[in-house]
Amino acid sequence: MFPRTILPRFKNTAKRLGVTPENLESLFDFSIDPFTLHALNLPGKKKADKTRNAALLAASRSYLGTGSWAADWKEVKSLCVDHNCYDAPNHTVNLKKGASKLFKSVEPGKAIELSSGGVKEAEKLLKSLSEDSAA
Amino acid sequence: MTPSSDQLELFLERLNALDRVLSKFKGSEVRQVETVAEIKAVSREWLRFSEALRAVDALPHENLTFIDSQLKDLFQSTNARTRATAYQKKLAPVISSFTERVVIPVIRFEGSPSQVAARQLLSEFAGKVSADEETYLEEAARCLAARCNRAAIILLWAAGMSRLHQAIEKLGFNAYNTALDQATQKKGSPFNRISKMPVGSLPELQRCRDFDLIVVGMELWKYDLQVFEELERLLGIRNSAAHPGMLKPSALDVQQYASKVSGYVFQVVAI
After folding, report:
1. Which residues constitute the domain of residue A93?
2. Contact criterion met (CB < 8 Å) for A79 and B113
3. Most C-beta atoms within 10 A of its C-beta, which of A44, B102, B187, B209?
């Protein structure tokens, strides 16, 4: 069931991205509480790209749920495992590669807050994934 | 305490390091005290990890049982004159399957949305709470992670009330009684709904209704009627969560509740 508490933020985000709320909704599984991401193809040629996109996606889920553009460190790690891009010795390094452009800071174990550039990239990612799901 | 995936990854590194040390013995008997001690230490540490992981149901028990039996064998081998190759044979299946059997399931468990929600709940209060209050909040987070959302709400409110009790104790019971007098002299709701019950000790304070405390709080901490009304709504939700009924709070509802308790209690009432 779609949580009523996030409906306004969800609709506004869909409007801002120029996608239908249904397409945006299709990226998430609302039958689980708290809602989670559906299976999707994480873009990125290298593991490092995918890892950063996993962080953007986790931050997007957090934003839609709580209003905060911050990715939980362990959720990012779990997404990377699911998308086969978890590289244990280089995980932090991979995230730090994009730190200045996308993230306010990257500290192992701590939530990864997106910078304004990161928010823009996360919205772009959400839009492209929503459009892919509609196609 | 449940080991994190980071700790388990370090543990695997330790097993790999032990394997490298054993390979240097080139099949001879391991007599070096440090190496035998390390074999015993990793086996013991694993058993502690295994017990904690069983308690939280983070991964299938058969995965743990497999590692348990291998490392128990390894530990028991230290009682005999064992060759390095024999140790390595017991260690090899653990090393080769540890990531798949243990580390990855724990990473998935830690990254599950309910665990994320529990961590976000705790981060809402970071740096604002005392050790006493923290125990309620940690229990609330555990309830949220276990999808016991009503229980989480009750414990969040308990954390808030704990803050009010501590703040009143710090101000002194006389200050509370004076504020109670001032509040009862005011007319209209909510002041005409207070039960005038002066307090002189913590047990008496604990017997006071939560409603009375949040009304008197307007005198003690100078918050306005709007903050009081928000606190009254939070108390209402807490009461609904504690009694039979159709309320079905979602994880997001609990997170919002936490955010309001943090904002209207912990930021307003200092200790």
Report:
1. 4-134
2. no
3. B102
d(CA B208, CA A49): 57
Is the per-residue pLDDT at B124 higher than 90? yes
List Cβ neighbours of A67 (8 Å cut-off, separation of 6 or more). Answer: A9
Residues 6+ apart with CB under 8 A from B78: B36, B39, B40
**Dist CA B41 CA B50 (whole Å):** 14
Tokens of A36: 């989670």
E-strand ranges in A18-124 read 28-29, 36-37, 70-71, 112-113
**Residue range A42-70: mean pLDDT, rounded:** 95
Count of CB atoms situated within 10 Å of the CB of A87: 16
DSSP label at residue A38 = P
For B219-246, the pLDDT digits (tens) are 999 999 999 999 999 999 999 999 999 9
Task: State the sign of the Cα–Cα–Cα–Cα dihedral A95, A101, A103, A106.
Answer: positive
E strand intervals along A9-135: 28-29, 36-37, 70-71, 112-113
> What does the alpha-carbon distance between residue B267 and residue A24 come to, in Å, rounded to a whole number?
35
CA distance B132 to chain A (A): 24
The percent of residues in chain B predicted with pLDDT above 90, rounded, is: 94
Question: Based on the structure, what is the number of domains in chain A?
Answer: 1
How far is B153 from chain A, CA to nearest CA, in Å? 16
Query: What is the DSSP annotation of A76-98?
Result: HHHHHHHTT---GGGHHHHHHTT
Q: What is the mean pLDDT of residues B179-205?
A: 95
Cis omega before residue B190 (within 30°)? yes
Chain A residues with CB under 8 Å of a chain B CB are 3, 5-6, 32-36, 61-62, 65-66, 72, 74-79, 81-82, 86, 88, 108-109, 111
Q: Can you give the C-alpha Rg of chain A in angstroms?
A: 14
Q: Is 0.95 exceeded by the ipTM?
A: no
pLDDT at position B32 over 80: yes
Chain B positions in Cβ-Cβ contact with residue A75 (cut-off 8 Å): 111, 113, 116
